[in-house]
């Protein structure tokens, strides 16, 4: 499943290239609780087709009613200055639009965004670039500039600047059953997923539509994958011959998450092997996570995959996880012995 921003922008580009009237809506400010964060976008075609979201659905319904009714759509401006709209200012409005108590959000609405500019933006995103899209409030003019790092939306008296990035990517080493569950969850969370496994007996049973499956050796795959700051690498084979060198290769990249499944004992043994035989130190292995996942008492492959995906998303979103959800910490503090090396949490 594609990154939601790219999905919205791609659909809007197609609509505009086909000559359809459409608006691009961006959440620019929120007060109190808000169903969608600042920077969220949606696109609405003149006939009522919609992609993306700025709320739980009620505001989308209101905008469809406002901007697609016969006679209303014809009166809308074509290009020109964008307009602001605010929802949830009063308690009655918050209730009407399904906003949390006290929640208010402000939207910026662009009318008939330029098709050529949208095409250029999508092309850059498809090429893996990070792009700032600046919208002049005076006339709706758009400028695209390269960005060096992800950034929060910026709104001032002159312009709106929203940074769009390529898809987050996940590389899974191993094509076993747990990899199928994790790949499926990652796809639904907007990651582009690649799975590598040189073992034909595992690849032959792997079936996750949308995930790319490779037969190359994991360390070679990591090198070709070239993880960046929007990438994560998760090793799920339990086989040191496949996992260890790939993990070391990943540690030389800016990947935001690098980890391996296995017991506490197996993960400690992996670190010891890397230090004794592969020239590593405690410092060089500081970014290596294991056992991966958060502690939710998981035992089955789908539950373990949920715990791994939760940890990946927490790291991606900059959430500092407390010790109480760290698998090794919980197991150590409770004096628990796990069921075996095939389990996430022993």
Automatic annotation (TrEMBL):
The lineage's top-level taxon is Bacteria
Ranges for the XdhC- CoxI domain? 15-66
Organism listed in the record: Alicycliphilus denitrificans (strain DSM 14773 / CIP 107495 / K601)
Concerning Pfam families, the annotation shows: XdhC_C (PF13478), XdhC_CoxI (PF02625)
Q: Where do the XdhC Rossmann domain residues begin and end?
A: 170-312
* InterPro entries tied to this protein: MoCofactor_Util/Proc, XdhC_CoxI, XdhC_Rossmann_dom
The protein in question is named XshC-Cox1-family protein
């Amino acid at each position: 499943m594609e990154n939601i921003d790219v999905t919205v922008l791609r659909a809007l580009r197609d609509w505009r290239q086909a000559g359809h009237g459409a608006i691009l809506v961006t959440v620019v400010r929120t007060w109190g609780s808000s169903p969608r964060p600042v920077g969220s976008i949606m696109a609405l075609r003149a006939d009522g087709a919609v992609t993306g979201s700025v709320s739980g659905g009620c505001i989308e319904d209101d905008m469809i009613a406002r901007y697609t009714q016969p006679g209303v759509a014809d009166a809308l401006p074509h290009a020109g200055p964008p307009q602001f709209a605010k929802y949830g200012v009063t308690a009655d409005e918050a209730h009407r639009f399904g906003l949390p108590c006290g929640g208010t959000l402000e939207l910026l609405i662009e009318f008939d965004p330029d098709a050529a500019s949208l095409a250029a933006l999508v092309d850059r995103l498809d090429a893996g670039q990070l792009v700032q899209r600046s919208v002049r409030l005076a006339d709706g003019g758009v400028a695209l500039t390269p960005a060096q790092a992800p950034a929060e939306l910026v709104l001032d008296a002159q312009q709106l600047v929203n940074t769009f990035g390529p898809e987050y990517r996940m590389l899974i080493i191993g094509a076993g059953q747990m990899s199928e569950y994790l790949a499926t969850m990652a796809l639904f969370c907007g990651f582009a997923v690649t799975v590598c496994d040189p073992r034909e007996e595992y690849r032959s049973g792997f079936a996750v539509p949308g995930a790319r499956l490779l037969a190359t050796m994991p360390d070679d795959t990591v090198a070709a994958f070239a993880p960046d700051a929007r990438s994560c690498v998760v090793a799920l084979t339990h086989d040191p011959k496949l996992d260890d060198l790939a993990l070391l290769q990943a540690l030389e990249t800016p990947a935001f998450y690098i980890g391996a499944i296995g017991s506490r004992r197996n993960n400690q043994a992996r670190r010891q092997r890397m230090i004794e035989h592969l020239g590593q130190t405690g410092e060089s292995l500081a970014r290596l996570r294991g056992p991966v996942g958060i502690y939710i008492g998981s035992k089955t492959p789908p539950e373990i995959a949920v715990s791994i995906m939760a940890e990946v998303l927490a790291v991606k979103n900059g959430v500092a996880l407390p010790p109480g959800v760290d698998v090794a910490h919980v197991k150590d503090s409770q004096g628990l012995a796990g069921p075996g090396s095939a389990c996430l949490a022993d």
